[in-house]
Amino acid sequence: MTRSSQPTRLPADVYDWALVAAQVNSRTVPQQIAHWARIGRELERSPQVSHRSISEVLEGSRVYDALSEPEQAIVRQEWAERATAARGALDYAARFAADGESYSELDEHGAVVVHPAHD
Q1: Residue 59 to residues 38, 40, 45, 48, 63: CA-CA distances in angstroms?
Q2: Can you give the pTM of this predicted structure?
Q3: Whether the Cβ atoms of residue 31 and residue 22 lie closer than 8 Å to each other
């Protein structure tokens, strides 16, 4: 059964990486995403990958080093996505302001910018 393409929302970073990979591999972005989806499907079907073991490592109840290389790659990707999400949720400016603290940061040119505390 064939089905026409369905509109799908993707995270911006997935689209950006697909665009880069598509150009390198002479594919369109939809072709690249479909290619990755097929790889993911086969990986999930693989007897070399235990989703239970991966889940246990992500939960902290199993040792990472006990995983196979493909399983470790999946765990590393999940850790990277979780770290990115956690960093994206941080708002130190609001936290420092709420605590009445000053802070410094670098601008896009590497110059130090001081944000004084506000009472």
Answers
A1: 27, 21, 22, 20, 10
A2: 0.53
A3: yes
